[in-house]
Sequence to fold (497 residues):
Amino acid sequence: MQLFYHTGRYFELVFNAFRRPERFSIYWKQIVHEVDKIGVQSVGIISLLSLFMGAVICIQTAANIDSGWIPAYTIGFTVRQTLILEFCPTIIPVIMAGKVGSNIASEIGTMRIKEEIDALDIMGVNSAGYLILPKIVAALFIFPFLVVISMFLGIGAGAVVGELAGVVGYADYEVGIQYDFRPFQVIYAIIKTLVFAFIITSVSAYHGYYTKGGALEVGKSSTQAVVYSIVLIMVTNYIITQLLLV
Amino acid sequence: MIEVKDLFKSFNGQQVLHEVNATFDPGKVNFIIGRSGSGKSVLTKCIVGLFEVSSGSILYDGREFTSMNRGERKAIRQEIGMLFQGSALFDSLTVLENVMFPLTMFGNMSKEEMKERANFCLKRVQLEAAHNKFPSEISGGMQKRVGIARAIAMRPKYLFCDEPNSGLDPQTSIIIDNLIREITVEYDITTVVVSHDMNSVIEIGDNINFVNKGTIWWKGTRNDILKTENQELNDFVYASEFLKQIRHNLG
Fold:
């Protein structure tokens, strides 16, 4: 019963968030602010993780290929496929669920316990729209850029590390990353990213918006936001993959 | 005028308010007093629409609020100002931006006019010098005054104050009380104050509603409250030995 209750309340909140804004100019300002907070301020951590993941995947692939029958370009191919299909569109959003999701839940949760959301409601402001919609729009806009940056950096790092470690030369790696390239796989990755961006922002906002109590409950909401976001990312990852790639 | 008629409110089958009838007059400071857990906060939240009532009606100058749809309620809400217990100022906005916030959302003014109005409201609460500060940089009393400035920015017809003196020293409490009283009379606002603070009640209360066991137990003026023989109200008003002694001495 609790599952139905939360699902219904979640969709009601999302529906309210998408109601017509009171002032577009105010929402626009909020969106720009959120793009900076959610996206631009995450570029550093995303870049760092992508560089190391690309490097590690390259070395691990090389270490697992001992047969002379397998061409060296397989390393480049594997790095590309791993990054485009799974690491960048799934693991990066999982990391973002931890960074951005907990931030959204604690921010909105604190506003709830400090009665700031009640203040918005009493003024006649659609609190769900004002607080949640800009975050969803900003994440839908900026997440694909983050994921594409991550793909380029990861693949680039694989090339550099492959050459430096002496496991695959630039030429073979380049052949690998171009081999059997299907642009649809990038589209698939972007679709996944958009869905995950929506899940992270809306689920985290839901947990923050319905926080009751004090500081302890804000912390609890923040944890729940991350856990539920990650679980939903994993479940929808499977569903989208089944629908688009099989 | 705000009228509450036969209001009932339950949570998960447990009745919190029953048969509440009250009238809050314009140009008067109307108090809702009562013990913690008596239902006064729930009553206030029902009146402003933060809680849906189980049954009964709430009328804002004859306009039935409970049966209104979202859009109609929005229009009424723009006529309501509210001062919260914790002030509920937006931490990320400066004092001036906090006061300007309702104007930017709903006002049809230019930016200059909005600034002018916000500065006027800040001047009214004697805080024009703090306009560039953030809520975290000012004291609790100042935050309450900013809350009042924000509440009156849209020229409300109805003002709700939830525990306006909680956490304030007696002198600052008197400043806030006087401000509420002056604003109520000056702009002919229907003001509803929820409080435990008997000093405020005696100082500025015109009409007093004592909530006990989920209903309005007693109604009267500040003069009536001092002379009442109602046992529950006396227990609440003269809770301390000190006050009991004063009453005894006054006969």
